[in-house]
Amino acid sequence: MPKVLISDSLSTQAVETFKRLGVEPTVVSKLTVEELEDMIVDFDGLAVRSATKVTPSLLAKAKKLKVVGRAGIGIDNIDLDASTSAGVLVMNTPFGNAMTTAEHAIAMMFALARHIPQASASTHAGKWEKSKFLGTELNGKTLGLIGAGNIGSIVAKKALGLGLKVSAYDPFLTAERAKELHIKKVELDDLLSSADIITLHVPKTPDTSNIINATAINKMKKGAMIINCARGGLVDEVALKAALDSGYLAGAALDVFEVEPAKDNPLFGMEQVICTPHLGASTTEAQEKVAIQIAEQMSDFLIEGAITNALNAPSLSAAEAAQLGPHLRLAENLGEFAGQLTNDEIKEIEISFEGEARELNTDPLQQTILAALLRRQLTAVNRVNALAMAADRGIKVSVTKTVGSKDYSSQIGVRVVTTAKDRHVKGTLFGDHPRLTDVKGIKLESEFSNHMLYIANEDVPGVVGAMGNALAANQINIAQFHLGRQDQGGDAVALVSIDAAPSAAAIAAIESLPQIRHATYLQFV
């Protein structure tokens, strides 16, 4: 039974979900870094919120770890590059708290427009400062969205229902989607100059870091307001303070900050600024939803191999995992075959999907081939990090998809170019059973057995008998024997399924035969 460590506070429903789906959860809290590093060695999965830091040091200790699940959207606390290098899948729950975060942004907009927190504090203090808190009517104003994805689109729908006009800057927003949302797609400068209120709903990336800086603020309308419930670091806090101090901007509402927990900030104490402690996802419903969702996702991965909402691997639903099962076995076998015959430095790997295979979800198949192929030369390689490890070593990886040949309705091929040679192999499925169909351009059909001999030989009379005698002399029984050749009297290959691993002496005896160029023992699980 896979084991998952829950190191941050999650709903008890998450624990029950893990158990129901066949995963053993262990709940701990407030561990020191050292305690967490000591514990993690025994676990297949780690479920976190925002408190636990997944660092290179932690990953180095987590030898069994296969997946980290973040109950929420942001992964600022998870080193994604280090996780990928370690072959650890990272999942989040991007949709579980979308509604809650969108509602918080709308609440912040009302609070800004009507000075609700300031008026509440004043009234609690026994004052009656009705004229001081003259507000702004939102109806008819323009709300500018920076980011119109999952959360931004919900904000847009709610704002339109309140009578606001909505424009959006988002490089990934299509004209069709903008029309569907009834919003206006604009460039950033146009949004800055036209919006009465700007709200941010993008991740923090090199492109979005400090997207609201002094230059951007100078392009905004005088008296505009800013809302950030997305990520700290999207707004230059020093530049924002200057604009508020000067009266150029009317106010700001921030749920996130450059440094969190935010115990000290240049914006604290400013009457025009509303601050909340990263409450965007903090509702009972959202916490329950993301906790259950991450438990389901992690369990599906650990039990079924399904991948949902992963940040460092393509998605693979449980249904797809079941459908792709035989193809994944074929991909694994082809990668193992090519890898066991590759002893030189790899320069290039080309993977081909022919016929019906090209219609499949080929990303998991590609990653499976790479992992199996590179496993003979690299340690700790798997489907998550195979592509990154190949890139780190300067190996060019390419994928082609073609109509295929008249001989097979579906084939997968692997071509490996090394400093010494160029080798390729192809395979297909007979029913659900993987079969080799082509080695070095030589057509033959062979299953993948636990113990096999790959023999390159000359196409001359007597070679089969000589090989059989050599194996018999070394007490090696032949289960199946498959032959193929390019041309009469030319290059030929033999794939021999045997009952047990051969001794070095048996391999040497075969290679000593005059008709044999070389023999290699292959093993398939």
What features would you highlight for this structure?
525 residues, six-stranded mixed beta sheet, alpha/beta, elongated
Task: Please tell me about this protein's structure.
There is one protein chain. With 525 residues, the chain is α/β, with parallel strands linked by helices. The protein contains 17 helices and 22 strands. The chain has helices at 12-20, 33-39, 56-61, 80-85, 98-114, 116-124, 150-161, 175-181, 188-194, 214-218, 237-245, 284-304, 318-340, 362-374, 386-392, 463-473, 504-511, and strands at residues 3-6, 24-27, 45-48, 67-70, 89-91, 142-146, 165-169, 184-185, 197-200, 225-228, 251-254, 273-275, 346-355, 396-402, 410-418, 422-430, 433-439, 442-447, 451-458, 478-485, 491-498, 516-523. The strands form four sheets. A seven-stranded parallel sheet has the order 8-7-6-9-10-11-12, sandwiched between helices. Strands 14-13-15-16-17-18 form a six-stranded mixed sheet. A five-stranded parallel sheet has the order 2-1-3-4-5. Strand 16 (422-430) and strand 17 (433-439) form a beta hairpin. Helix 1 runs parallel beside helix 12 (284-304), helix 5 (98-114) crosses helix 7 and helix 13 (318-340) runs parallel beside helix 14. It is elongated and about 105 Å long.
